[in-house]
Amino acid sequence: MNNPSSNINTNNLDRTNDDLHWLLLICGHVITEEYDSDEQKTIPEAVMNFSSEQVKYCDLKKCVQIAQHILQHPQLDLTDEIIQGVSPVTQCMVAVLKLSEIERELCSKGRFEYISVQVAVSLTWFIRRLAANYLGFDEQSYKDVSQTLSVLLGKGSEMLEFLTNYFLSKVVTNLQMWASESDVIKETADLFVTLSIKKESSLIIIKNELFWTLANNVISNHMPIQLINEEYKRLLIKGITCSCLNNSSDEYRLHFDRSIFQILNQRLQSIVESIHTLVEQIKLNNTSKLHCTTALQTFYSENVLSQISTLINSYCGLIEGGSRCSSIQITYLFEHSQQTLQYILDLFDFYHNYSDQVQIILELFTLYAEHVLVYLNENHTKLFYTYVLRLLQIFTKCNYGKKTKEINADEDFNGHIYTLLNCLNHLLAKDFIDFSDEPSTNTTWAPPIRDFDLSVLEINVGNVVLYGLIICLPLIRSDNLLKIPSISLCYYKLVSSLCEQHSECLFRLLDTEQFSIFLSTIKLGLDNYDNEICKMCLETIQSLTLHIIKQPKQYENNEKSKYLEHFLDYLLQEIVTTTTTLSDLFDTLAGTIYTLICAYPNQFYNFLGQMKQQDDNLTSIIDRFVHDIGQKHDYNRKIKISFTVKFETFVTDLRRIMKK
Amino acid sequence: MADTHAGDAFDDGNEDFQTGDAGASNTYPQQCSALRKSGYVLIKGRPCKIMEMSTSKTGKHGHAKINMVGIDIFTGKKYEDICPSTHNMEVPNVKRTEYTLMDIDNEGYVSLMDDSSDTRSDLKLPEGELGQEIRTRFDNGDALKLTVLKALGEEAIIVCKLENEPKK
C-alpha cells in the first residue's frame, strides 16, 4: 500500500483483505466475548490470567507509549524489535488500531481502491467487542489483575480516556466514510451504543466536542445521516440519550434538553400547529382555501412522510436510551413529553391512512408502556392511560369497516395489531412491576386531552386494556389473524393476564354477544394451538370461573355464566375421548376442571351420570372418584392440589377401561 | 393568514431539508442505501412498493449492491432491480386522499367529495371484490369513505371504510 504505483494487483489485495478479515475475527473471538445490550461484559478471565503471567516480561511504559504513538503515526514501524517488551494483548490491540488508522488515512487520501468493506465491518466489530469487554473493566471481579491491562484500560487511567475518545472518532469517521454500507453502519451504531451504556466511557465521550457535533448531525438529519437506515439512526439517538442521562449531572441533562429534546419537541410542535392552522383555514372556506389545501398536501409528500417517520423514530430512540438510565431520568423524560404525546396523537389522526406512520407511532407508545410506565406515579400513570385510550379511539375510527386492495395492506395491518396487543400487554405489566416513587411535584403538566370524554370510562388499566381488546377482537376475527403465530401468542398472553388481574372488567364491560365471541377465541385456542397457548386458555377459564365463584348470587342464571359452564362439559369430554398424553398440561387442566366443578357442581354430576348410562363398566370408577372428592365443593387451593392427584388416578383408570 | 407549508414546519435553521411545494414533481431522488422495505421506489418506470430488500456485494471485498423486489401499486405486477448502494433511485410521491362517497352512476363512475367540499366524478369503481363491496354497502345505505391512491398521474380507489364510528 506504500507503493505509489496506480497498478493494483486485485488478487493480492483480495487475499490480503481476506487474511485481515479472518485475523480480526480470530483475535476478536480469542480476546473478547459476545454480549447483549443488557449485559455488562468484562475481560474474559483466561485472558486476564494470561496477561497477568506475561507482565513479568513486559515493559509497562512501552505498552502505553506504543499504543499512543500508533494512533498519531500510523506509519510507525511495528517490527519485532520495536514490539519487544510489549504484552501480547497490547500487541494485538495496537495492531488493530494501526489497521484502523491506515483505513482512515487511505479514505482521507481518496485511495478507496485499497479499502475493503468486509474488513471495515470486521474492524468495527472487533473494536465494539474490545470496548464492551475492556474499557474501564471492573478490577474487583478478578483475583489477579494484570498490571498491563490495569494501566492501559483500568478505570481512571489516562489511556482509557484516550482510547474511548478514539473509539468515538471511529464512530464519526465510519458514519462519514461508510454511510452507504449498512453492515458497517450497523456495527458502528452498536459500537456507539456500547460506549454510551458503559458509565465510564459515557462520561468521557460526553465531554468531547465530537459527541455534540455528532448529536447535532443526527438530530438535524444532516448528511450523511440522511443516508442511513432508520433502525441505525434510532440506535444513534439511543446512544446520545443514554450518554447524556447516564449520570446524575444536571449540566449534561440541561445540555441534552437544549440540544436534543427541545429541538425535537419544537420541530414536532411546528408541524402539528402548521397542520392545525391549515385545516382551520380550509374549514373557514374563504379565498385562501385553495392555497391552504395545496399547502396541506405538502404534508403528504413522500419526502415529508419520511421526515415525520424520522422524527417519531427519534423519540423511539430517546425512550430506548432513557430506559437504560435512572428512574429520575425516566420520570423527567415523561414529564417533558406530555405535550409531545398529545401532538403525536394529532399526527396519528392526520396520518391514519399511512401505515408506516401508524406503525411507528404505535411502536412509540409501546416503548413508553414497556420502559416508562413502571416508573410513573399514580397521576402520571392515569395520564398515560388517557393517551392510550385516545390512541385506541383513533385506531378504531380509522379501521372501522375497512376493506382495502392496497398492496401488502394485510401485512401492514397485522403489524399494527401485533404492536397494539404488545402495547396492551406492557400496560398490564404495571400490575406486577411498579417502581414509582413519590407523586411528582411538576406543575407544568399539559391539560387532559381534548375530545375524549373521561366520564365514559374510569381510567384504570383493566378498563383501558379491555377497551383495546374490544377494538382488536373484531379486527382479529374478521381477518382470522389468530392463525399468525406472533399475534396469537400475544393475544392469548394478554387475555390470560387480563383475566387473572381484572376478570371483573370482562363481566362488567362486555355485553353478552361480545363475551360469547371472546370465549369462542378461548375455545379456538384450546382446539388449535400448542400447549403454551392451551395453558393460557385454561388459566383464562380458571380466572373467569373464580370470579363467578366469589359472587355466586350475582351470576345465578346469568347468560355469561352459562357460556362459561359449557367449558366444563367440553374439557371433561376432551379428557375422556383424547388418546394423547396431557402430562405437560395436566396440572393446569385439572385445576381448571376443579374450579369449574366448584362453580357448576350440578353440571358436573349430570355429565358423570351420562357417562355411567353410556357405559356400565365405568360406574365403579366414577363412584369411587365421586366418593374420593366428596360432595362439598368450596374452592380451596389445598383441596385443588389434592383434587389433581385424585383426578389423575380417575383419568388413568377411565382410559384403561375404555381401551378394553 | 400564515403562508404555511411543510417547508416552514421543518425549518429549524437546517437548509439541507428537502420539502415538497405546491406543484411538486412526481418523484424525488434518494440514495439506495436509504430505501427501506415497505417504502416506495420507481422500478422500470412503475411506482412500486418495496417488498424485499437484500444486500449482495460486488466481489469479496467490494461495495454493497441492493437487490429490490417491488410490487406495482396499481397493477400488482412484480418488478425487480439491483442497484449499487451509493446510487440514487427515484422515489414516487404517493398520495392518499380520503373522499366521502356521494353516488355511483350506472356506468360505475363514483361521485366523491373531499374534506374541503370539492367534488369529482372522474373515477370508476375498482374491479373485483373491493368494487363489489363498495356497491353493496352503498346500496345498503352505509355512509362510506373511500381512499384514492395517486402516483405519477395515475389514480385508483384502494380503500373503503364505514364513516360512522362504532358504539363504545
TrEMBL record, chain A:
Record-linked Pfam families: TPR_XPO7
Q: Which GO terms describe its biological process?
A: protein export from nucleus
Q: Does the keyword Nucleus apply?
A: yes
Q: Where in the cell is it found?
A: Cytoplasm; Nucleus
Which GO molecular function entries does the Swiss-Prot or TrEMBL record give? nuclear export signal receptor activity
Gene Ontology terms: cellular component: cytoplasm; nuclear pore
Q: Where is the Exportin-7/Ran-binding protein 17 TPR repeats domain?
A: 93-223
Entries under InterPro entries matching the protein: ARM-type_fold, TPR_XPO7/RBP17, XPO4/7-like
- UniProt KW keywords: Cytoplasm, Nucleus, Protein transport, Transport
Q: Specify the domain of life of the species encoding this protein.
A: Eukaryota
Which family does the record claim for this protein? Belongs to the exportin family.
Q: What is this protein called?
A: Exportin-7/Ran-binding protein 17 TPR repeats domain-containing protein
Q: Please name the source species.
A: Adineta steineri
TrEMBL record, chain B:
- Give the domain of life: Eukaryota
Q: Where is this region: Disordered?
A: 1-28
Q: Read off the PROSITE patterns from this record.
A: IF5A_HYPUSINE
One GO biological process term: positive regulation of translational termination
Q: Does the keyword section mention 4Fe-4S? A: no
Q: Which SMART domains match?
A: eIF-5a (SM01376)
Which CDD domains did the record assign? S1_eIF5A (cd04468)
Location relative to the cell: Cytoplasm
- Translation initiation factor 5A C-terminal domain residues are 93-161
Q: Which GO terms label this protein's molecular function in UniProt?
A: ribosome binding; RNA binding; translation elongation factor activity
Q: Which NCBIfam families match?
A: eIF_5A (TIGR00037)
Summarizing the function annotation, the protein's role is: Translation factor that promotes translation elongation and termination, particularly upon ribosome stalling at specific amino acid sequence contexts. Binds between the exit (E) and peptidyl (P) site of the ribosome and promotes rescue of stalled ribosome: specifically required for efficient translation of polyproline-containing peptides as well as other motifs that stall the ribosome. Acts as ribosome quality control (RQC) cofactor by joining the RQC complex to facilitate peptidyl transfer during CAT tailing step.
Record protein name field: Eukaryotic translation initiation factor 5A
Q: Which organism is it from?
A: Adineta steineri
Recite the lineage of the species. Answer: Eukaryota, Metazoa, Spiralia, Gnathifera, Rotifera
